[in-house]
Amino acid sequence: MNPWPGVYFEYEGEKIKILAANYDSKPHNFAPGEVVDGGLAITCAIGKLYIEKLQRSGKKPLAIRDFLRGFKIKGSVE
After folding, report:
1. Rounded to 5 degrees, what are φ and ψ at 8?
2. I need a surface site. Which of 22, 34, 60, 78 has the fewest CB within 10 A?
3. Average pLDDT of 46-72?
């Protein structure tokens, strides 16, 4: 999905592009789409997607740690 069409999600009406991520296929007991740790791990039906780099519309790309310092997402922590 990189570079085109790309992967993104919307949060509170803002489109946020995922530029880098890793996937872990270990089973879990969460519903798909939940944020389950402070670094913005998102559960899938099987496994978790660990976001590494994001970009807000009109902003520069940031590593997840830097991104979360200035933009809070429910379920994540700095």
Report:
1. -150, 165
2. 60
3. 92
